[in-house]
Every structure is written in structure tokens, then in C-alpha cells.
Input
Amino acid sequence: MSKTILVDIEGAISSLAFVKETLFPYAKEHIKDYILDNYEHEPKLFPIIDIVLEEVKNGNAQGISYDPTQVDIIIEAQLYTAIQALLQWMSEDKKITPLKELQGLIWEEGYQKSAFKGFIYEDAYNWLKKEKESGSAIYVYSSGSVKAQKLLFEHSAYGDIRELFTGFFDTKIGSKKAAESYKNIALEIAIPPREITFYSDIEDELKAASEAGLEVVQVRRKEDYEDSVESEYKLIDSFTGL
Ligand SMILES: [Mg+2]
Output
């Protein structure tokens, strides 16, 4: 039977470890070299660096000061200020737009160089494929940007699997913990909320989706969570047999 599926990535079809142990460390390790190697020929970098320096000027990078005499004189000094701020935000796990955008660029390069592959659990991949073949529409809703989502699927261990998905949503549509976001998604895809099933590992997200009228399923994978949990929602530990 064909369905409308809305699926989370981290902790659902992909692992929490892929982000924590592969993507974030890779970005952190390459921020400095990526900026120094690319600032002269990557036009997407200029606006990012500008916003970073603006944030530093506004005092949003604690302990890092902006020296106005750097302007137009020593570009490299400005770059180092920006790098320092970016690394600091990364270690503080700050969700700042220019940082997210830069991470996206660095990951893109990493995927292209095959430094890593997008991780999808095998049972999840088989389930997505089976649902797609039976005519289900599958949408993604993740806090990672749509750009990062597409990169992961394009460079997955199973090849380019973007065609499995009908659409992609990130937090531009709203917070994953707000019922309004799920209503917005339902409106956007023009399907009544009750006909959509949302899969996620996070209880607050399931609560919000449920409030919006969606069917919800909690995914608690043994690979991602050691402890067992009681859920007020339907609970699965893999996509096998669904
Ligand atoms: Mg998740």
C-alpha cells in the first residue's frame, strides 16, 4: 500500500555516530586549510567570511577581537580571525548560519574526494527502496540543511539514492520540536497530516508531529541507544519487517 512517509535522518535512517564521528571532525580538521586554499577562487566563501567577521565585531565570538586596522590591509589576518571564530563555534556546538554553510562546502569537497560515504543503515535503505517501489512518497525532515541531506544521499554507500525521495525539509520550515512545522510540511506537500507517518528517534519531535495530527513511530536503534525505553508511541529498533 502506498503511503506518505516523513523520515528523520540522524538516529533513524542514519547513525548518530556518522555525524559526530565522521562529518563534524572532518569539518573541524579542514576549516583552516579549506579557507586558506579557497578564499581566492570560491565565490561562496566571501559572504560567509563577511558574516563571520560581522559576528566577531558584534562580540559573538567570546575572547576573539576584531582589529579594524586589518580591513583591506592584511586579508590573511582577517581570515585567521574568521578561522579562530569558526573553530570556537564548532567546539561550542553553536548552530550559526555561516558555520553551517561552511561545513556544507567542506563536506561537499570531502564527499567529492570520497574521504567518506554517506552512511545509511542497510535495513533502512532496503525499507526506503521497498516503499518507493510500492509507490509511497518519502520526504526527509532533518536539522541538517537540505544541501547537506542531498550530499549524503548523493554520495551514499549505495550510490546516488536521491531519487528515493520526493522532497526534503530542514529547519527553514520551522523547528523540529514545533507542531507548526509539521502542519507546514503537510500544507506544502498537500497531504492531510493524518495520512503522513513520521519516523524519528527524538520524543519531542514525535510529540510535536503527533500534536499536528501525524502518525508517529519512534525509532530507537540499538546501534544508537544503549538503554531501552518505554514509548507512548509505536516503537521500532530497525526498519526490518515494516
Ligand atoms: Mg534524529
